[in-house]
Amino acid sequence: MQRPLKRCSLRNSGGSKIRVLYVIMNLDFGGTASVMLETVKKINLELFELGILILNSKNNSPVLYQMLQETGNRIFELNQSKKYGFRAIYQHISSFRPHILHVQDSLSLLKVLFPSMVCRIPVKVKTIHCDSRLDASVLSRALHQFKWFRVFRHLYACYDAVFRNVVRENREEKDIAVGLLILKIAYRLSSCRPVAISKSVRQSMISVYRNLSSIPVIYNGVDTNRFHLPKPMRTGEQNKIKLIHISRLSAEKNQVLLLKAFALALKRCGGLLLTIVGSGPELKGLVKLAHTLGVAENTDFLGNRADVPDLLSNHDIFILTSETEGFGLVLMEAMAAGLPVISTAVGGVPEIVRNGANGTLVQPGDTVALAGEICRYAEDEKLRKSIGSWNARYALTYDIHRTVTRYMEVYRKLLIKKRRWKE
After folding, report:
1. How much is the average pLDDT of 347-372?
2. Rounded distance, CA 58 to CA 55, Å?
3. pTM as predicted
């Protein structure tokens, strides 16, 4: 059995450092990996010793992995997408012996749940990146490959029907119900402290997990210095108004709305170009739709890119069309780059986009309204510049250093509560 960890003091320069092990399924393009990577780069290494446990390294982005290696922190890797890997996970955790285990997603929480209990990790933290129901749905989809999950889902459906008189005909609803139950059990067993990335996410947690009333909100942050770049000179064809969208190409991001609104705006005001950055299961369908709508010549699909700051600096308007969004980190990146933003009013987005002040919010699915806003910004250079300039200053309030400071404070309070920190 793992020995209990000794107390440590961050107030004493000669004392031992606090060891934090970050756990993530893989380093893929997206807000989860980006924020974790920036946190690792900016955290105070005089006080903290960091490790990163990647549970399914075969899906790593080579670019993000190289950036992680450059931080100089210890990296533990597994390549087990289907196997549980208890022994390997236990060995990595016990070798690093963290005081804090910081989990980035729900599937990772399940995988490290029992190894972390055996290792007696004092503090466990999980960042909640999206609405609770979506989180449960994503977890269930990931668990579909396991036979035990399919059996468990069937038994739970039978229990609901017999003892609670609840019948769920929709498979998605069954998945959400089972996913929520599994997460409730995991939170209770692990004594894991959730941290929400927006007030909207926190409210969704409280409504589902009623015993989790005290959930801190720590907004995702961006390295504003990376995105504050000069605008390049543009001539000829480049003088057209350039729209940019950066996101995973998946159903919940609703790029179908984006392409339809772009086609309508192109007919109304013309002189527009659209750049779509990202990859995902909807790519082929979106390319086909662009041809069907007649906008393929004005639309570029670039795939995943590491030069996002440069791309943003070379565009005029940022658009996000998600049906659900925990925070919208890419919106803040666009603001830091000095762009006005147009977004659907979902999740935590209204907390950072003030309608009419630093951008515009439209209702999900409203193609006409989105097209109208695209034309309004495209035809008013003064509006674009004034809002873009305001956004560049506004983004400083969401700088990554503030996010890291808040997490360090949460770590400190939880360690004091567990009596692992000497005041």
Report:
1. 93
2. 9
3. 0.87
